[in-house]
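STRUCTURE REQUEST FORM
Protein name: Probable membrane transporter protein
Source organism: Bradyrhizobium manausense
Requested output: structure tokens
Priority: standard
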Amino acid sequence: MSITDFLPKDVSLTIAMALCAIAFVSGTARGFSGFGSALIFMPLASSVAAPRLVAALLLVIDFVAAAPLLPDAWRKADRKATAVIVLGALVGVPLGTYFLSVLEPVTTRWIISGFVAALLLLLLSGWRYRGKDHVWLSVGIGGLSGFCSGLAQTGGPPIVGYWLGRPIAPLVARANILLFFGASDCFSMVSYATTGLISRESLVLSLIVGPVYALGVAFGASLFGRASETVFRRICYMLIAIAVVTGLPVLDRALR
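Status: completed
Returned output:
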């Protein structure tokens, strides 16, 4: 019995190896800088496998990787403020999941590439919200982040840009972000499961790709403090841009 016997029927060994390579690179970005994994993983992975499959795969492996951080985040977070934003995700995540489940794969890939390109521009702009805290705005940011998470697990930049601009301690902001995504991932798990996106195939594939992703996260974390964060962030931005371009469906004939 070989590893190919455990792979989903539509995933060849070559595709599985490509997903592992993509997972290692995106995991390294997350381990070092704390962001960028989905923005690198989704455009590239959805160009070699079905977007629905790779979105569920990323959700499972990233949820497992982040779960140990939640107890500490619960203790340090501003739970009342986080709960307001989570309300938005409660609506946004199922809506994004619905579009992921009904759209054609190529259409979904175009949307993912567009989303990631827009989110990359947001990161490059250095945007931080400096205005007053309004309930409707918090709910709206949570809804936008939840929608991006439901559609393509790319909900990071809006919520990070919002929380890091608030006049609160960085430790609390980080805890808020972790707690929000813990809740958002739970919503995604339920939404993906009820729509059939979390399947036997995605779970089996997560057992193969997940350890490689974890190695990437550990490798990236080991680089922290040894390399310039500014340089590494620029490398992450470049990788995201490359992922967007190479993941465009219009280039399938030339690149694949």
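Reviewer notes: The first helix runs from residue 13 to 33. The chain has one domain: 10-251.
Form closed.
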